[in-house]
Design goal:
9 helices, 2 domains, mainly alpha, about 75% helix, Tetracycline Repressor, domain 2, Arc Repressor Mutant, subunit A, homodimer, about 190 residues, DNA-binding
DNA sequence: ATAAAACTATACCGACCGGTATGTTCAGAC
DNA sequence: GTCTGAACATACCGGTCGGTATAGTTTTAT
């Protein structure tokens, strides 16, 4: 089944792409390094030459995922001019993602559930990812002239997380819409 | 390290107790059946005589966890008389849980992250658990004379989930308090 | 007292785990 | 033209995985 095509990408990229897909789809512990190397059409020795260990590959996978997410979101936000509709766009972006066929929830939340060791280097990336979302929300809230951007951002963040998690478990986007409603209802009373 | 004491409980109960603790603490895939049997001071043959397979043990573990949770919550709610303070008590119960040393988030959410096969029998229990919380909230909202108990319950549920998840990842109860605030602020405007 | 039921001990199964070692092939740089 | 480095193929390591088989021992209910 669909491997990454060998010619147009380096071994490093192919490994990351295969790991990203398999880890997200099947779970981190459920996928072995042999499978990843095979899917990337690469030898196990090459995998270890690039990433040193499975933990290293896990960490780099999350780092790459974070970078990709950040890029995708900014591209999505660029389509909207005023900060208020950009706030809405964040919910819209998650909603669009949530109805995809291969959607299996937030990869960082899932990873956190599996990596129970709190000292695992990947934990820092997970925290950084969630913090980045929170911060972007605060940024937009401030740009939208919210009187208390930090509070508003935190509220939006909690609703975003609750909506996403519930949409994941129920396998329907409705909870995200509901959370979006609640979030927008918070805004007018707080705007000057 | 602390095993379940052998004398005062049956092999079945000891197995469930050991599985419950290890699965929650280390993750489901991270724990092997050998470890569980050893911790329960029981032979692997006995484990398979009782549960048939690891999947069976996982399923029964979640079933038992759901039952225990339901029992604990009702005991907690019994300490409060009026439905409004019972609604608050749900957040209080989760908060008390979230500051425990061995807290590692909602066991059902974590299990859902690991059990990627949507046909796994444990998925039904996870869904049932979340539905039970949603329903209990609706029950209490109705008893508290909310005009639209279903809507209110859904809103409280989303906040509860978002608060719990964020409290888990940040390793602090503050997000739960914030979500609780938001939830209570929803009530007065909706009450008749 | 006895027989079924529950549990123990031990050994085994093939498969896979993460990780390593040895040696080869081959393209680009000097 | 040779040297370097990256990827190759293959085989191996000890350990653990989930699961089973055989046999003996304890408990428990009749």
């Amino acid at each position: 089944m669909d491997r990454v095509d060998k010619q147009k990408s380096s071994a490093h990229d192919r490994l990351l792409a295969a790991a990203s897909r398999l880890f997200y789809e099947k779970g981190i512990r459920a996928v072995g390094v042999n499978t990843i190397a095979a899917q990337a059409q690469v030898t196990k020795a090459t995998l270890y030459a690039h990433f040193g260990s499975k933990d290293g590959l896990i960490t780099e996978h999350l780092r790459a995922r974070e970078q990709r997410w950040r890029c995708d979101l900014e591209r999505f936000l660029a389509g909207h001019r005023d900060p208020a509709s950009q706030l809405d766009a964040i919910f819209a972006a998650y909603r669009a993602w949530a109805i995809a066929d291969d959607f299996r929830g937030c990869g960082f939340v899932n990873a956190a559930a599996e990596l129970t060791d709190p000292t695992h280097p990947a934990r820092a990336i997970i925290n950084a990812h969630k913090h980045a979302i929170r911060f972007r929300l605060e940024d937009l809230a401030a740009a939208a002239d919210c009187p208390q951007p930090s509070d508003t951002a935190e509220q939006w963040f909690l609703l975003l997380e609750g909506g996403m998690l519930t949409a994941t478990l129920r396998r329907e986007p409705a909870p995200l819409d509901r959370a979006h409603e609640m979030a927008t209802r918070l805004l007018p009373t707080q705007r000057v």
